[in-house]
């Protein structure tokens, strides 16, 4: 039966939301967080995904592990692990300790305390909201579509296409993508039938059956105006907004996750700026704006400040933020370098960000925040260590004619 027809035939008879007991997302999230706390969990460089060595172990501890054919599994190979990572990152639950040799994943202890004060129903709706409204899969897990998961799920289940379930299963890698289907299963939206994968197929889904909960949730969560779904991509509602929606239908939903307010980090930043194997370590005041920081960085490497640039980083929620040259145009998630100060950067010690200079030659610097000392002051900056000779910005090439 077509997905849309299944959805249309579901009747929401009762006012209250009824859980079937097949919702595994809360227990799975708690198991993964416990695993991270109990083990030394390594993360990949850059995006900080789960390292390959942990993927099969993480899959095995879940209530509903999936059968995947892969000799060298990455996080994306297991849609359930990819989806859980997306939720943990979007909630701001993950921390990362970066060293020369490795990046170690951890759990935000302050946020964990707030999480543990919630009951299982409140935890469920916290995860639901983070998935459908606040996550940015294209930035956090390199999802292929720049759209709101709520919009993707509504479109998949309700708007429908004149395709059979079999045809839609064939296209899952593109729409709504496997991680969304894995999450839909864990949230109790669907039941999935699979068979053992062959050497050409990974997660081998052969049937999808919708559960009543999907309509109980989506009919109350989706905005009345479809244009709001587009607006939410750029301006999502405040965290915790789902409490207003679902409390009338679920009496156990009384509290939401408490997030500590982001505060200014006033004092001294120790930054390690690397260009390949060449690096400079400096102490710099938190009062400097990013345009001033650019001048310092380029001076340290002997570059002329004659090109456009931008800074890129993922904040504690896995959202990509970009700080641009003042002459560049802005769009969502971006700020100008002369209006954004180092003290306001939403990163912690041992977090890193990227500086891209000259979009033609593409000089890409990695900047590691080695420490933040809020008890010290410095007028501007001080060079602490210099290793390696900086490359020439404009090398002379002998051209042969």
TrEMBL record:
Domain Plasmid pRiA4b Orf3-like residue range list: 276-375
UniProt-listed SUPFAM superfamilies: MM3350-like
Span of the signal peptide: none
InterPro entries referenced in this protein's UniProt entry, alphabetically: MM3350-like_sf, Plasmid_pRiA4b_Orf3-like
Protein name: Plasmid pRiA4b Orf3-like domain-containing protein
Species, as recorded: uncultured Sulfurovum sp
